[in-house]
Design goal:
- The chain is an alpha/beta fold.
- The protein starts with 7 loop residues before the first helix and ends in an 18-residue tail after the last strand.
- It has a single domain (8-396), classed as 3-Layer(aba) Sandwich (Rossmann fold).
- 37% of the residues lie in helices and 22% in strands.
- The strands form three sheets. Strands 2, 3, 4, 5, 10, 14, 15 and 16 form an eight-stranded mixed sheet that branches. Strands 1, 6, 7, 8 and 9 form a five-stranded antiparallel sheet that branches.
- Helix 4 (71-85) packs across helix 5.
- Bound molecules: S-adenosylmethionine.
- S-adenosylmethionine binds at residues 50, 57, 65, 67-68, 95-98, 123-126, 129, 165-167, 170-171, 248.
Length: 408
């Protein structure tokens, strides 16, 4: 696939980051795990994809997320959060707030629903994104920015609602390969021409245990009735495992004193994730709206991401003592939260003329965006929504119909 060329300034940053990672690999004896590589290309201060100055989300960036597509997404999320505000503190803690559009939309929508936010806390690892979030909220929800605060670390105790849209997919993963019955960890080394290259080494005990647990849970007909399914994988099998995402859910889950956690992301249950036919895993890179499979291309200038194993996320929530409140597709959840009613209520122009045409164009845009959010071929089915609670009733609106908890 031919990819667009970045400008000279971006290339200088990418080369600087590559140089640092290469030095690290040399110091570590010629190999680092893929999770370490992914962490650096995404989060290296000043140079990593999320930590650098480049535009990431939206038309001028590399990919588009749901809050960027349409304000309907934030409005539907607000309907769910508003229900929970009846049972917990009116506090939102958003992790990885991107451009800040979701925060701005939620602040307004929750106000309009009569359940205003008392405190909207954002935990963001990227300094450049914090600045962008502040600008977006000041522009789109100027009357509400007073309740927004940026935190440097996870609060010790949370009473309220935690949200994370496309957060878990941005957390580093370990890559493994099973070949002829042997489990290896796939990491990164330096090839003779100086470029980054995949390299395997024997898996350590922690990875071995994690892979066995994960694949054992997802044992399906494809693996037969093996007692140790890992070693019965057909042919050469490569995939990845999101241990950091699980640890995050456990940590935040333990900090949640009373309230809910709602996470939206692309992914599936372990059965689908680790299906024998998905033998190359789900790791991909996004560069200027193209999706490809080379994570070593222009370090720091492209997004690198993996899908989420929601079965593992559900187990992590249970380990933290949380109740699983629901799991369903994004389309089902948005419909449950009233997206179709909002579309039906769109006002169309009563008569022709320039202002009428402008309204009609806006309405068509809204319908187009809703179609992308809902369509099975786009975000509707691949994206899932999972929610956990502590001390809440088990009747979350977003999962009223089509709850798939039983499939995890
Ligand atoms: C794919 S972006 C999604 C941004 C935004 N939520 C949206 O939907 O447009 C992932 C975001 O998660 C942030 N992130 C990753 N790990 C994080 C962590 N441990 N704590 C807080 N934010 C994190 C990144 O900096 C980035 O802003």
């Amino acid at each position: 696939m031919s990819l667009p060329s970045p400008d000279a300034q971006a290339l200088v940053l990418s080369r600087a980051l590559s140089q640092r990672i290469a030095e690290d690999i040399a110091q570590q004896g010629g190999w680092i795990g893929f999770d370490a590589f992914m962490h650096r290309v995404l989060y290296e201060p000043g140079l990593g994809y999320y930590a650098g100055p480049m535009r990431k989300f939206g038309a001028q960036g590399d990919f588009v997320t749901a809050p960027e597509l349409s304000p309907l997404f934030a409005q539907c999320l607000a309907v769910q959060v508003s229900q929970w505000f009846g049972q917990t503190e009116p506090v939102v803690v958003e992790f990885g707030a991107g451009s800040g559009r979701l925060a701005a939309g939620m602040l307004d929508a929750l106000h309009e629903l009569g359940t205003p936010v008392r405190s909207y806390l954002i935990v963001e690892v990227s300094a450049s994104l914090r600045e962008r979030q502040r600008e977006t909220i000041a522009q789109l929800a100027p009357d509400r920015i007073g309740v927004v605060q940026w935190l440097d670390a996870l609060p010790a105790q949370i009473d309220g609602v935690v949200i994370g849209n496309e957060l878990l997919d941005a957390m580093p993963v370990r890559v493994f390969e099973i070949d002829a019955g042997v489990l290896h960890e796939v990491g990164v080394s330096i090839a003779e021409d100086g470029s980054f290259a995949w390299a395997v080494r024997k898996a350590d005990r922690a990875l071995s245990e994690a892979v066995k647990d994960t694949l054992g849970e997802s044992l399906n007909d494809g693996f037969g009735e093996a007692t140790d399914p890992v070693f019965r994988m057909p042919g050469r099998y490569r995939s990845e495992i999101g241990l950091q995402g699980r640890a995050w859910v456990e940590t935040v889950g333990r900090a949640l004193h009373h309230g809910a956690i709602l996470l939206i992301d692309y992914g599936f249950s372990a059965r689908e994730y680790y299906h024998p036919q998905r033998d190359q895993g789900t790791l991909v890179a996004h560069f200027r709206h193209r999706v490809h499979t080379d994570p070593f291309y222009l370090p720091g200038l492209q997004d690198v991401t993996a899908h989420v194993d929601f079965s593992a996320i559900a187990r992590a929530g249970a380990a933290a003592g949380l109740d699983l409140l629901g799991y369903t597709s994004q389309s089902r959840w948005l419909i449950n939260c009233g997206l179709l009613d909002r579309l039906a209520a769109l006002t169309l122009p009563a008569q022709a003329g320039d202002p009428g045409v402008a309204v009609a164009i806006e309405a068509a845009r809204t319908v187009g965006a809703a179609q992308t959010l809902l369509s099975e071929a786009e975000m509707g089915e691949l994206f899932k929504v999972i929610a956990f609670g502590r001390g809440l009733t088990d009747d979350a609106l977003g999962f009223g119909r089509g709850d798939r908890r039983g499939t995890l």
